[in-house]
Write a structure and sequence with these properties.
The chain is of the alpha/beta class. Strands 7-6-5-8-9 form a five-stranded parallel sheet, with helices on one face. It binds phosphoric acid mono(formamide)ester.
Length: 302
């Protein structure tokens, strides 16, 4: 890695997170600032995206920069067999920053090792989604007034969910207690649980969150990710195990907020959308400001 990149949430310190969150709060007050004039950013999306790509592209444009890239590999020379290495080497000649989503775990790290310019990982397989994590931290701090000592429920696909993996590692700086609820086949991988044990972070694991929902400060719902299953029958078995509805929120804490990285399929009932405890649409909006702050951080723009 030659420049500053954001590949894994662990590349950055707690102080870096807080600096980015404070900067994002400034961008929320004033998102239109000419800080990227003369800069060109590439968004290379080898996997589908709505929020991540479009909020990054909006972030660049609101800061006065320009965007090139692809959102469909079928329109690129990847279909002719071009390697990731060659694509990164070529695009690095054109732009100041690459924002990349790719299905292969470790692809963003690899890109950062062969590129002379900064790389932002917009999701690499089931591994990491660090910009999502920073917007999650921003949303948690904004709604709770703190990041410290919170009870964080993570519900759904904890095996393949890169957002929960990144969030768990980031929150470990703030003394949380985690509650993991998933189908047996989609449990939080043991490596992450080992990480928490080493750090002395409390967690409980179970199958039914409803009996303890009153303990939650944050309810982080996740989608069961069809695209990560090799066996469609396994997906069908697991896809609708958890569906949060309004009645379940009735006896929750007043401060509780429901987060979801989105897209949702059916894991949050539509009747939750108008509940003041639902925060996922605001969370997605926060992504714009946080991504403005991340871009400025990696490019060294104050
Ligand atoms: N949260 C998230 O990554 O959404 P997209 O897949 O739409 O980018």
């Amino acid at each position: 890695m030659k420049g500053k990149s954001l590949i894994s949430i662990t590349d950055y310190s707690k102080e870096d997170y807080l600096e980015i969150l404070d900067s994002a709060a400034d961008f929320e007050k004033n998102p239109d600032q000419p800080l990227l004039q003369g800069k060109v950013v590439a968004t290379l999306f080898y996997e589908p995206s709505t929020r991540t790509r479009l909020s990054f592209e909006t972030a660049v444009q609101r800061l006065g920069g320009k965007v090139i890239g692809f959102s469909d590999v079928n329109s690129s020379s990847v279909t002719k067999g071009e390697t990731l290495k060659d694509t990164i080497k070529i695009i690095s000649n054109y732009v100041d920053l690459i924002i990349m989503r790719h299905p292969m775990e470790g692809s963003a790290r690899y890109a950062s090792e062969i590129s002379d310019i900064s790389i932002i990982n917009a999701g690499d397989g089931a591994n990491q989604h660090p910009s999502q994590t920073l917007l999650d931290l921003y949303s948690i701090r904004k709604t709770q007034g703190t990041l410290e000592n919170l009870n964080v429920f993570m519900i759904g696909d904890l095996k393949y969910g890169r957002t929960v993996h990144s969030l768990l590692m980031a929150m470990s700086h703030f003394k949380p207690t985690f509650y993991f609820f998933s189908p047996e086949a989609l449990r939080m991988p043991s490596g992450y649980k080992h990480f928490l044990k080493e750090k002395g972070i409390k967690f409980v694991e179970g199958s039914d969150f409803v009996p303890v929902i009153q303990e939650a400060d944050i309810i982080y719902m996740t989608r069961v990710q069809k695209e990560r299953f090799s066996d469609p029958i396994e997906y069908e078995k697991n896809k609708s195990v958890y569906v949060l509805n309004n009645a379940m929120l009735e006896h929750t804490r007043p401060n509780v907020r429901v987060l979801h990285p989105l897209p949702r399929v059916n894991e949050i009932n539509l009747d939750v959308d108008d509940n003041p405890k639902a925060y996922y649409y605001d969370q997605a909006r926060n992504g714009l400001y946080v991504r403005q702050a991340i871009i400025c951080k990696v490019l060294g723009i104050k």
